[in-house]
Amino acid sequence: MISQSSQSSQSSQSSQSSQSNESTPERNLEARPEVTPHVSATRSLLGDAISGPSATERDGEASPAPSPATPDAAPTPAAGPESGAGTVTAPPRPRPVRPTPQTLPPWRVLLHNDDMNDMDYVVGVLERIARLQRPAATRCMVEAHRRGVGHVLTTHRERAELLAELFRSCRLVVTIEPVR
Fold first, then answer.
1. Residue 113 near residue 145 (C-beta atoms within 8 A)
2. With contact defined as beta carbons under 8 Å apart, do 44 and 67 qualify?
3. Domains (range + CATH), the chain
4. For the stretch 26-54, what's the b/e string if a residue is b when 16 or more beta carbons lie within 10 angstroms of its beta carbon?
5. Is the pTM of this model over 0.85?
């Protein structure tokens, strides 16, 4: 025995399914050609590849071959083994040639001995500005103290000029010169 609620739910489901069948987006386009005229033109261009066999072909009668919609449309060549089976490959692009970077000419940064600055102060400035380790900064300071000039580092001109300005701002006597 079926309860009334199950009968009513079955009847509502059947009425919903009949409504959903009416509103499905999949329509028989052959039955309604007036709704979408562009579809019939597409069918005539593409033929059976998309639309499938027509009703007359299914019944055994042959239909005439579809004609192109536009007179200037050229037929596409048949895809054979020599044509790559329809795949199109772009020709390889030439890689851009990058110029090789030229090395900049080296410049020396030289620290001169002065009697105004303390040795520990000079070592601290060398560590901070030139990014030297403590032993290298001490070696440079001692060389400048004993010989009068100490070699801090060798770099390109722009950086050498920057370092010289930074050392001068800390009251150290520094010069730069090109390496010969």
1. yes
2. yes
3. 106-178 (3.30.1390.10)
4. eeeeeeeeeeeeebbeebeeeeeeebeee
5. no
